[in-house]
Specification:
By secondary structure, this protein is of the alpha/beta class. The protein has 31 helices and 31 strands. The strands form 9 sheets. Strands 6-5-20-19-18-7 form a 6-stranded mixed sheet. It has a 6-stranded mixed barrel with strand order 26-30-27-29-28-31. A 5-stranded parallel sheet has the order 11-10-9-13-14. Helix 16 (328-335) crosses helix 17 (339-351). The longest helix has 19 residues, at 125-143. The protein starts with 6 loop residues before the first helix and ends in a 16-residue tail after the last strand. The structure holds ligand PGD (2 copies) and molybdenum(VI) ion. The site of molybdenum(VI) ion (6MO) has 3 residues, from loops. It comes from Salipiger aestuarii. This is Dimethyl sulfoxide/trimethylamine N-oxide reductase. Mo-bis(molybdopterin guanine dinucleotide) binds at residues 155, 364, 474, 478, 521, 551, 779. It is found in: Periplasm.
Amino acid sequence: MSHSKKSGPVRVSRRTFLSGTALSALGAAGLPLLTKGALAQTPADEILSGCHWGVFRARTEDGRAVEFTPWEEDPWPSPQLPGVLDSIYSPSRIKYPMVRRAWLENGPGADVAGRGTGDFVRVTWNEALELVARELVRVREETGPTSIYGGSYGWKSPGRFHNCQTLLRRLLKLNGGFTSSSGDYSTGAAQVILPYVVGSIEVYEQCTTWPNVAENTELMVFWGANPVNNSQISWQVADHGFAKMEAFRDAGGEVICIDPVRTETCDYFDGEWLAPRPQTDVAMMLGIAHTLYTEGLHDQEFLDRYTAGFDRFLPYLTGESDGVPKTAEWASAICGVPTETIEDLARRFASKRTMLALGYSTQRQHHGEQIHWMLITLASMLGQIGLPGGGYGLSYHYSSGGAPTHNSPTLPAITDTPGQPPAGGAAWLSAEGNATIPVSRFVETLLNPGKVIDFNGTKITLPEIKLAYWVGGNPFSHHQNRNEMVRAWQKLDTFIVHDFQWTATARHADIVLPATTSYERNDIEQVGDYALSHIVPMKKIIDPVFEARSDFDIFTGIAEQLGLGYEYTEGRTEMDWIRGFYEAAKLESRAKGMEMPIFDVFWDSNKPLAFPVTDEEQNFVRHASFRDDPLLNALGTASGKIEIYSTNIEKFGYDDCPPHPTWMEPIERLGGPTTTYPLHIASNHPIARLHSQLCGTELRESYAIAGREPCWMNPQDAAARGLVDGDLVRAFNDRGQILAGVMITDVIRPGVIRINEGGWYDPADPREAGSLCRYGDVNTLTVGISTSKLAQGNCGQTAMVEVEKFVGTPPEVDVFSALDG
Ligand code: PGD
Ligand code: PGD
Ligand code: 6MO
């Protein structure tokens, strides 16, 4: 995640730079980007801002925000916007600085099993800031900076200045250092393996654009990819440029969706639905590849010219190396899709201009490295990579990948090193810190200090962590195997959290500091992670509610306690920073031949500032330059080509990540040889939430069933268990148990249930191991193991369970209440 959502889309590529140079030929004054006429249209009584859900205008009454209206140019406004407004005032809003009573009275490490029981004491801001400063110094002095964990992963709000994670690291660096994390939960496996395969992380890179697809693609395959749901939100401010899919639909393009769920995207295109057993896609792709090869449908010329190592993969495909030919029949026995369908897919893919669009959830699984590698191998065999409308795309479902990139400047951001000039890009792929662990291995680190683990060709010694500081993330939602995690958390002396919602993470903290929402402070951001179509003023809509303070003000207060206030702020206010970022973008923009208005005009305009898009970008084709000249535009791999066999990975000698794409049984799966529980859980990203965000708002009433998180189930599975729509059920396995409300539907295949990630963890008794989660946090049931020694990614999509009707008096859900009055 979030990613270079991060570095991919925001980097100014050589391509963009060149088109910028072309534009500068327009003259020194450049293209004026905002006209007087545009200013006149501004509604005076509404305040413009932006968030993960898009650009919007806010109306206030007596200092209270009363309505958020999507920006009139938003092509596909998110239905979640009312929940965004409600997150300011919902009953789960954090109002005051709070400290866990046992910690306050008996010091760090007191009664750690009592975390989550809700026994907090309200303190003043001065007391809170002093407690945090003293504790940061104590831990650093007693056990060293690496015993402070500042990885703090999560979907903090957008904004170039109030980036709470960068602001945290800025403070921790001033305090002498910390342990950080690398990678993310979104694409942990893919982003590590793809540099070996195609020379870049690829998952956050631009795809062949939707206009190009509309014109050239004959067959679009959404393989575990669901843009209609997932591109509702973006890492920056959403542009909803995925709406440009409409032209492809209107052109009558053929669509196949390969997914255990018949998705909203499948409905949108009225596509063909194929539902393999989850976690078996690599086998299905091998079956298609085998058919292509045996029927001579593969493009040998492409393989020879643009790829390396197909000859070393081939003996595995044909079975020469292991005695198992990866035929369509072999694949069918594993994935459950009929042999003829697999063979037919091979023929259809080869006979049409085909785009393979892969989502991320298929790599958030045990051995998740393999699927992106195998998809690219399949696309290489089809030989359409770099052709208009053909090949593969890895972000069609994410932050509106495929929306054409505009010719805009880089908007700088606050950095985690005071004094360093501001730069664009994101904090967490840089892996800064005195020690760094793969992000999904924090629980493993807490449980096994000193252990040496493999990671991407290196050895990492896990540090001993005493203090964790989290801002802008919800580990008690995003991490797997909750009960193991709760035990591990007891190793911490101190857990500090800033948030604006009483999430399960805040409830398990020792010190909770109330942060402002983006709507209570000023900021600036770009619109569209890929489109970069506008710069939007994110204006303060209302004053901070209750005692909330911005993360910047909180960290400044702590830095002042450390005697480092000036070093932290560099003597600049919120508006000084924002103005500085804008001015730097204005200079870059001038070099590109465009004239941005002066800051005050931009800020007062109450309008997003639009940038132009060139014809070249409208029609961008991924890897076209590589295809045109594979020597001049060689990929960043060892061979400069697409690597179907990686000698670098071979050298690591990992038993769980061989040197070519390989089908390996996951630890558990539907129909797996050693699997005992009968139902696979698809823990998809929610339709009406962003992860756990907005679960505490009124939106919940629109989807909760029996007051709990919904559990989708096929009629066959429901009948076998005597369940009817709306039943309260218990889903359980050896790792944990949760309550959920059943929704019976045939849009999910038999043997699979869907419980979205992000339901708030609500243990009936936080002191009891394995306690029943009353609301429905799916990560109580998922596995905590990593994808492999190569990437050490998370396996949130690996979980098998049983479901039964809940009998007895249902316990009341308690997690949505405030713990500060
Ligand atoms: P969010 O609910 O977005 O989840 O996990 P992540 O931790 O990102 O949490 C963000 C928190 O930050 C919220 O509590 C919000 O209130 C807070 N916040 C927002 N803005 C600010 C701010 O300005 N300041 C402060 N202090 N707080 C702020 C998401 C993660 O979950 C991701 S990205 C993925 S891809 C994974 N997906 C799955 C999955 O598919 N399946 C399972 N089983 N598990 C997953 N976990 C991962
Ligand atoms: P998911 O919804 O988890 O999204 O993007 P990602 O692609 O990971 O899964 C996409 C599809 O994969 C689902 O339809 C699911 O049924 C299918 N699927 C699951 N397992 C398998 C399998 O084994 N095989 C096949 N073929 N399909 C499978 C996540 C992306 O979405 C990320 S990383 C983030 S951080 C954002 N999160 C949200 C969010 O929380 N809420 C919304 N509305 N939108 C988001 N967009 C982003
Ligand atoms: Mo993610």
